[in-house]
Amino acid sequence: MKKKVSMAMKIRTLKRHLNDSFKSLKRNGWMSVAAVSAVTVTLLLVGVVFAMIFNFNKISNDIENDVHVRVMVERGTANDQKNQLEKKLKKMASVKKVTYSSRKKELNKVVGSYGQSFKMFTGDDNPLYDVYMVSTTNPNKTIGVAKKAKKLAHVYDATYGGNNAKKLFSVMKNIRKWGLGFAALLLFVAVFLISNTIRITILSRRDEIGIMRLVGATNAYIRWPFLFEGAWTGLLGVIVPVIVIDFGYVWVYNHMALSMASAGYSLLRPGMFLFQLDLTMAILGIVIGALGSVVSMRRFLKI
C-alpha cells in the first residue's frame, strides 16, 4: 500500500514539474524563442556536418577497397573500335582481367541500388557510359594502369579509387577540423543562450524558490522543473533541423544517384541512416538544453 502511495506521489510530482517547465517556457516568451532558435541553427549545421562526414567516410572506404580501373568508353564508339580498345587493355602490363559492362547494365545497377524511378533513363536518355572494368595483378599497379588507359583512343575517362582517395582524405580532414570546430562553437552559444533563459526564470521565481526551501523542499525538487525546461528547449529546437535535413538529404541522394553510380560509388541510403542521425540530433538537443540549465543553476541557485 505504501509503495502504491509513494508511486502515485512521484507521478503527481513529475506532472507538476512538467507543467511548471511548460509555464516557464511561455512566461519567458522571446527569450525562449531565442534559445530554441539557437538550438535550431546549431543542430541544423551540426546535422549537415555529420551527414557530410559519414558519407565521405563511406565513399572513402569504397574508394580504398576499389582495386579496379573503370575505363569509360566515349559515346558513339563503334563495336569494332570497342573490341580494339579491349585488346589494347588486355595487352597492357599488370592487367589480369578485363570485363565489359554496357550502359544498359550500368543503368540496371543504378535501378537495383536506387529504385525503379531511374528506369526512365533508358535508351538515348541513359547518361551513363559503356565501361571496361580492369583488374590488375597487384593493387599497387592500378594507378599506373589508369594513367595509361586514359591515353588510349576512344576512352572518355579512366578512374581509380585510390587516386581519388588522397584528395578525399584531404577534404575530409579539413571538414572535420573546421566543421566540428564551428559546430562546437555553435553548441557553446546555444548552451549560453539557454542558460540565460533559465537564469531569467530563476530570478523571476526567487521568492517562490525561497519559500520552497523554507518549507523543506529538496534541491532535486527545485532543480527538476528547470532541467525539464532546458530539455524542452533543446527538443523543440530539433524539429526544424530534422525536417530540413531529412528532405534535403533525400533530394541530394536522388539527384546524385546517377553521377555517383557512374563513378562506381554511392551515398549512404536514407532510412536507417536518417533515423540514426535524427536520433543523434534529438539526444544532442536534449543534452544541450539540460546542460544550459545545469550551468545556470550552478551559478545562480547554488544548489
UniProtKB/TrEMBL annotation:
Keyword Transmembrane helix: yes
Membrane protein topology class: Multi-pass membrane protein
Pfam hit, one: FtsX_ECD
Domain ABC3 transporter permease C-terminal as annotated: residue spans: 182-302
Gene Ontology biological process terms in this record: cell division
Keywords: Cell cycle, Cell division, Cell membrane, Membrane, Transmembrane, Transmembrane helix
Keyword Repeat recorded: no
UniProt-listed InterPro entries: ABC3_permease_C, FtsX, FtsX_ECD, FtsX_firmicutes-type
Record domain FtsX extracellular: where: 67-156
Residues passing through the membrane, by range: 178-198, 231-253, 273-295
Subcellular location: Cell membrane
Cellular compartments per GO CC: plasma membrane
Physiological role: Part of the ABC transporter FtsEX involved in asymmetric cellular division facilitating the initiation of sporulation.
Family: Belongs to the ABC-4 integral membrane protein family. FtsX subfamily.
Protein name, per record: Cell division protein FtsX
Naturally occurring in which organism (per UniProt): Latilactobacillus sakei subsp. sakei (strain 23K) (Lactobacillus sakei subsp. sakei)
Gene field: ftsX
